[in-house]
Write a sequence for this structure.
């Protein structure tokens, strides 16, 4: 009779060893991409019927240019941090997007720039809000993370810090584009008519003005070392007042990264992304509810955000290289590349 318990115990030990041995194999098969990168250039009422062929081509070419810069860095073994910064800088330097050079105007006809960055390995983060003379807000956000004891700096203080650290300072006129200036003038004209105007938020809701809230750029990257990084940069909301700050520089709202789960960059109506802690919620659902990236992004954007009344979207990338575009608007400028070099560039909801 004593032999039975001994045999059972031996089988349990052997079974346990086999299970432990098989675990790495299972983890290996779950890895979809050794490295990958995903970007967005803003979400909103982006319709094919309102887009000229020329403008559509310009957007697609710039998205492709930006993501290929980051992909090349990753392919050569570079860090996700460098890939995110360099990719976003391409979009910051383009007047097509509401970030950097193409930033929208405030009610006072100035440009106030916001950005944030997060490192998924250390959970370190940096953010900047309301700067008016720093050429690359995303670089400033990263420098705040690496070269200061703080997470967020704003306004004049952030500009002083940027200058002390040797970042490129430009005259505020660098950010002027006629297209964005005229958008502000149209809003101001409508403001005078007092039609469809919400005095509480100082924003119109007709078809011409709805996209005053959109155009943010963002990037998430996974490097060969398994580290995830995420960054977001924006000019904010057209006609914003009183130093308004949206979700883009708020860690957990506009940007979040954690090597345990995923990286996320958001774009949309910032007030709702802040209330819902949209970027962090996606990671939390993956960590605590064991949801897949697709399940988490879908629930947060299509369910939670939509029920709040918010509009916009996210790009997200998990630790295994799975990628997700999720938005509840008519379109989102977006692109992705995997470790095989496969490129996807899209604008409209498909």
């Amino acid at each position: 009779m004593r032999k039975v318990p001994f045999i059972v115990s031996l089988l349990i030990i052997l079974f346990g060893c086999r299970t432990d041995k098989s675990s790495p194999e299972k983890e290996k098969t779950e890895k979809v991409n050794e490295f990958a990168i995903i970007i967005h250039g803003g979400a909103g009422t982006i319709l094919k019927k309102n887009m000229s062929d020329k403008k559509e081509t310009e957007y697609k070419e710039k998205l492709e240019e930006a993501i290929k810069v980051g992909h090349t860095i990753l392919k050569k073994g570079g860090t996700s941090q460098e890939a995110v910064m360099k990719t976003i800088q391409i979009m910051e330097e383009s007047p097509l997007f509401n970030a950097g050079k193409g930033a929208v105007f405030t009610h006072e006809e100035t440009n106030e720039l916001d950005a944030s960055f997060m490192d998924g390995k250390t959970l370190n983060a940096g953010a900047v809000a309301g700067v008016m003379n720093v050429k690359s807000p995303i670089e400033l956000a990263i420098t705040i993370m690496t070269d200061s004891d703080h997470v967020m700096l704003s306004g004049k203080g952030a500009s002083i810090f940027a200058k002390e650290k040797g970042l490129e300072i430009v005259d505020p006129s660098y950010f002027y584009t006629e297209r964005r200036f005229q958008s502000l003038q149209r809003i101001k004209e409508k403001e005078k008519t007092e039609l469809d105007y919400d005095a509480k938020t100082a924003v119109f809701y007709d078809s011409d003005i709805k996209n005053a809230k959109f155009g943010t750029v963002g990037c998430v990257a996974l490097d060969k070392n398994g580290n995830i990084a995420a960054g977001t940069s924006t000019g904010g909301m057209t006609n914003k007042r009183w130093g308004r700050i949206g979700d883009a520089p708020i860690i957990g709202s506009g940007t979040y990264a954690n090597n345990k789960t995923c990286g996320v960059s958001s774009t949309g109506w910032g007030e709702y992304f802040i209330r819902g802690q949209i970027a962090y919620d996606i990671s939390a659902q993956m960590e605590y509810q064991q949801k897949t990236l697709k399940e988490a992004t879908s629930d947060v954007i299509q369910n939670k955000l939509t029920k709040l009344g918010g509009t916009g979207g996210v790009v997200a990338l998990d630790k295994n290289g799975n990628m997700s575009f999720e938005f509840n608007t008519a379109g989102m400028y977006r692109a992705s590349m995997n470790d095989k070099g496969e490129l996807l560039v899209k604008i409209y909801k498909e």
User: Anything to note?
Assistant: The first helix runs from residue 3 to 30. The chain has two domains: 1-30, 33-348.
